[in-house]
Design brief:
Blueprint (H helix, E strand, L loop, with lengths): L1 H9 E4 L1 H6 E11 L3 H8 L3 E2 L4 E5 L2 E5 L2 E2 L16 E4 L2 H12 L3 E11 L2 E11 L2 H21 L2
Antiparallel strand pairs: 1-8, 2-7, 2-9, 3-6, 4-5, 5-7, 8-9
Length: 154
């Protein structure tokens, strides 16, 4: 129980739309190579994962289209908000992600960003896109669970 509470306190950003739009098959934890002003903005929770994705280029994984706002006190040393950021993964994990990326209909997307021992980590998921009827089914199941919990207090 303490671990759960500790993880919630360290949660910086979450991509809630990802689980709505994709069936998540696998997840990987990766470090992010950030500059000094970027990590300060991340700690201030000024990050948006909504349109982000992971791309494998020349045997390296990069986090693309994730917006980290400029640090207010960063002056001329500030970073570019939408730049590509390298992900720190083991070679065999990168190879598995590259194989998944080659498949049709598979996307690699960031799910959460959190701090772990002072370092920014991203939880990336390998997901297959849902069809519209799958999304409706997910909403229906969620509403049914909520109604059962409300009625019976389970």
């Amino acid at each position: 129980m303490k671990k759960e509470k500790e993880k919630d306190e360290n949660l910086i950003a979450q991509n809630k739309k990802a689980r709505h739009d994709y069936f998540i098959k696998e997840t990987y934890e990766a470090g992010i190579a950030l500059t000094g002003t970027e990590i300060k903005s991340v700690r201030a929770r000024r990050i948006n994962l909504r349109d982000g994705y992971v791309q494998i280029i020349n045997g390296s994984a990069f986090l693309e289209n994730v917006h980290i706002s400029e640090y207010k006190q960063g002056n001329r040393y500030n970073h570019e908000p939408l730049r590509s950021r390298r992900l720190l993964l083991h070679k065999n994990e990168i190879n598995r992600l590259a194989k998944a990326q080659a498949e049709r209909g598979i996307a690699i997307i960031p799910l959460k960003v959190y701090l772990k021992h002072g370092f920014a980590k991203v939880l990336i998921g390998v997901g297959q896109g849902k069809k519209e009827y799958d999304k409706r089914q997910t909403i229906k199941e969620r509403d049914q669970k909520r109604e059962i919990h409300r009625r019976y207090g389970i």
